[in-house]
Amino acid sequence: MSDEQAPAVPPENSPATTNTVTRISENGRDLFPSLVAMRQVHRDLLRLYRSQGNEDPALIEQVVTFVNEACATGVLIDAEEDRWAAQGLVDYWTTVLYRLGRESVDTTLDDFDASRAPELPDEVCPYLGLGAFGEEQQDRFFGRDRLIDDATNELESHSFVAVVGPSGSGKSSLVLAGLLPALKSGVVEGSDEWLYLEPMTPSASPLVRASEILFGSSEPEVVHQLRRGPEVLYNQLTRLAEDAHVTTAVLFIDEFEELFTLCTDENIRNDFIANLIAAFDRPQPRHKLIMAMHSDYENQVGRWPRLKKIFTLATVRVTPPTAVELREVITRPASAVGLRFEDGLIERLLQDVSGERIALPLLQFTLLNLWDNRDRNRITWDAYNKVGGGRASLVAKARQFYADLSANDKLIAQRLLMALVDPGNDMGVDLLRVTRDELLRAGGNRERIEPVLNKIVAYRLVRLIPGDAAGQEQYEIVHEALTQDWPELVEWLDEKRFEQRQRLRLRAAAQQWQTTGHDVSALWRGALLQEAKRYSDLNDLEQSFLDTSVEAEEARERAREVALQREIEQAKMLAEAQRREAEAERERAETLEKLTIQTQKSNRRLIVLVIILMVIGTMTLILAGVAFNERNQANAQTQMAQTSEAQAVEARSTAVAALNDAQTSAQEARAALRLAQDNARTAAEALEAVRLSEQQAQEALATAVAAQETAQASAAEAQRQSELARSGQIAAQA
After folding, report:
1. Looking at the predicted structure, is the pLDDT value of residue 561 above 80?
2. Other residues' Cβ atoms within 10 Å of the Cβ of residue 190
3. Residue 164 falls within a domain, yes or no?
4. Contact 85/70 with Cβ under 8 angstroms?
5. Do the Cβ atoms of 421 and 430 come closer than 8 Å?
6. Cβ neighbours of residue 671 under 8 Å, at least 6 residues apart?
């Protein structure tokens, strides 16, 4: 194989040695950690061979060593394509050795042996997860070559380039790990000699941040310099460039949308933009401005026509990566450290994020979790099935963290996470950088907070940014993807947005109350007031409005209590009256019941009396009949004893009188019976009538008894007269 047929062509800046690649020692033999490492050494050897020729014995020994190490590395290479590539490198250098008379070298790759796969150390992790790439991670940043080329082309023609994209698209990573390293390597003519200032974000005080970058101070008098005129920024950039003996200074402003979301002072915003326009919109621009901005706030730029002009001229839109670019994101960092994927797994990972707007961060997060679950130097299907892919991987990791917390620690985690975000409106969430001291104050008990904070960082959900002093370390949520896909965090954000909307309503209500001259009808009450009582950090007007609303609510409550007490007293009085009425009714019922019982007893006595009277009447009738019969007999005897003495006539007259008396008694008995029946009917009407009936009955009874006695006497007398008459008859016959 000739030089022109060599498997790879070394770049011009390749080192002149092959000792820059770390080897792995296996059973006394050195192996390359990966095919990528083997190719790097091959390029180094090829450059040395071309520059020094084949006369250098040291070079020949390096070639022999390379062939031996490459063949031994076969135990680590399993993919057929990679084995062919490695064998091609070995064959190339074997041919070189053959030409030099070195034929005893073994030229066959060792068979793959999974048990001899190396343990990749944690520190060579090729993936970053949800964190943004910085310049120090440029060796792991792949898949964005097309966008890097677009941005460098804009900077060749203009003094400004705006990198614009949605949340999670990788704007910051593109600039920090892609564009800036490319510029520093000289991709644009002379760019390797430019002065690159420290990246800045506007924050709530853009002039303060610019003063720190340009003047190294945030003292008020220093910051005020930027407000003296729009040329201050340009002049200071020029001064800094000249001090560094270069012509061009480069300023990178990340998260430019903070100028609209965090900065609330319109004058400061105008002064900052005026300095930018004066520095970079010039007839012969000298310096370069790189801006990264959320696409949702792109329309805000139109408020400043000159800024919009340069913005429109040079804008690079961060679009989702293609499938080929996503594959590079997976394979190129893995190849650099010797990490391998089981067959079909890369395709599955690509499917998981296909069509996702935030495909890159989701893929990076999944890859980092897979790395944590690797088997020596391999990512297996078992690892994938454990951690999942795409959004499922992100949600599973966040929920695992949350599930591992106690109930109290969950509340602490919620407070910490909510201190790191500003929900804003429904357009998106602003991630905040908060110092450790601020977080500890926000969370409460320091001893309880620190373990939870450290755990969030360990789960890679929050990033720790070192500070200049103890307690000044900063924390931020690693990526906005968490605010979109972690259900618990999404719910907390919605609750906070609702609270913010309520706060705005409170502010508007307080202002209306003030405008209407503290009209009582404008005060809050009910659920709105109860919700507002939970708010803190109120201004004087809001606090006064809230206090007055509470006082009015308490006054209404007291009035309601008085009215309720009055109603209770009235109800008690009514209940007492009803109780008394019921008691009287009960007493009347008892009296009536007693009267009824007495009446029933009287009725029973009357019935007995009537029965007695009827019996007496019956007996009287019987006796009257007997007397009547005796009278007939007496008449017969009288007729038979017409010749009897005057005494017999007198006896007969007496008997007739007795008979008349008996008839009279019978009539009186019948009258008494009718009177008793009338009394029985009227007994129920009144007790007095009953007593009268009893008296009348008693009188009737006495009369009946007397009549009975009279009748009996008459009957006896009649019998006596009859006997006398019979005796007289007998005497007459004699």
Report:
1. yes
2. 11
3. yes
4. no
5. yes
6. 700
Mean pLDDT of 151-178: 92
Q: Are residues 103 and 225 in the same domain?
A: no
How far apart are the C-alpha atoms of 509 and 522, rounded to whole Å? 7
CA distance readout (Å), 397 to 336, 389, 404, 507: 26, 11, 11, 39
Q: Are residues 182 and 289 in the same domain?
A: yes
The sign of the dihedral angle between the CA atoms of 552, 553, 554, 559 is: positive
Average pLDDT of the residues of the chain? 81
Tell me, yes or no, whether 333 and 411 share the same domain: no
In the chain, the number of structural domains is 5
Q: DSSP assignment, residue 109?
A: P
Longest dimension (CA), the chain: 216
For residue range 297-322, list pLDDT tens digits in order.
999 999 999 999 888 889 999 999 99
C-alpha to C-alpha distances, 662 to 599, 632, 653, 703, nearest whole angstrom: 36, 14, 14, 12
What length does the chain have?
A: 734
pLDDT of residue 656: 52
Distance between CA 60 and CA 105 in Å, rounded? Answer: 12
| Residue 292 within a domain | yes
User: Which pair of structure tokens corresponds to residue 79?
Assistant: 């993919």
The 3-state DSSP class for residue 93 equals helix
Alpha helices of 486-525 — where are they, by DSSP H? 487-515
Same domain, 306 and 174: yes
Report which secondary-structure segment, H or E, holds 230.
Answer: none
Same domain, 232 and 266: yes
In 68-190, beta strands by DSSP E: 160-165
Q: What's the pLDDT tens digit per position in 456-476?
A: 999 888 888 776 666 678 888
Per the model's pLDDT, the better-predicted residue between 166 and 651 turns out to be 166
Q: What is the pLDDT of residues 89-137, one digit of tens each?
A: 999 999 888 887 776 567 889 888 877 777 888 999 999 888 789 999 9
Regarding whether 304 and 348 lie in a shared domain, the answer is no
From the CA atom positions of the chain, what is the Rg in Å?
A: 62
- What's the CA angle centered on 546, arms 540 and 552, to 5 degrees? 135
State which residues form the domain around 182: 144-320
Considering only CA atoms, which of 363, 367, 514, 491 is closest in space to residue 421? 491
Assigned domain for 211 exists? yes
Give backbone dihedrals phi and psi of 24, rounded to 5 degrees, phi first. Answer: -110, 135
Query: Is residue 251 located within the same domain as residue 329?
Result: no
Q: Looking up tokens 């009258």, which residue turns up?
A: 671
Cα gap 35→44, rounded to integer Å? 14
Determine, yes or no, domain membership for 75. Answer: yes
417 and 369 part of one domain: no
Contacts of residue 19, Cβ cutoff 8 Å, sequence gap at least 6: none
